[in-house]
Amino acid sequence: MSDFEPDARLVEDSYPVTELPLCQLRLMNDARYPWLVLVPRRLGISEVYQLDDAEQQQLWREATAVGRALKECLHGDKLNIASLGNVVAQLHVHVIVRRHGDAAWPAPVWGQGEPEPYDLDTLAAMRDQLLAQIEGLELT
């Protein structure tokens, strides 16, 4: 899908991590939460139902596998998976590991305080940790 581009807001707010079979995996630039975004590489899609059945299954497979790996490696208390699209219409799925006592607990992370951007060293370490966790996952 060479014409695929994530929405400009997603590009502005996150960093690319890797390409999964269906989705581009991105890390939100907010160090308060381990927060990933999966963006299906499909043009003109804003809703899950616009994907065919196999793609819907693949999206869920990627979101749950990545979420499980992230929660386990970071010892999270709760895994949140959501597709909102109120600000960015392009279909994307948030995968967020929550911890009791995090900056927004128990409320949703959206609209809670100001994002705390990653410094470059922490960003690189987080990306490396994510890639190591994802490497062995069964995603197809």
TrEMBL record:
Q: Does the keyword Calcium apply?
A: no
Keyword Methyltransferase in annotation: yes
Q: Which GO terms describe its biological process?
A: methylation
Output the superkingdom of the source species: Bacteria
What keywords were assigned to this record? Methyltransferase, Transferase
Tell me the GO molecular function terms: methyltransferase activity
Looking up SUPFAM superfamilies in the UniProt record yields:
HIT-like
Q: What is its EC number?
A: 2.1.1.-
Organism of origin is Halomonas kalidii
What InterPro entries does this protein map onto? HIT-like, HIT-like_sf, HIT_Hint
Domain HIT per the UniProt entry, residue ranges: 36-105
Q: Which residues cross the membrane?
A: none
Q: What is the protein name stated in its UniProt record?
A: HIT family protein
Q: Which Gene3D superfamilies match?
A: HIT-like
Q: Where is the signal peptide?
A: none
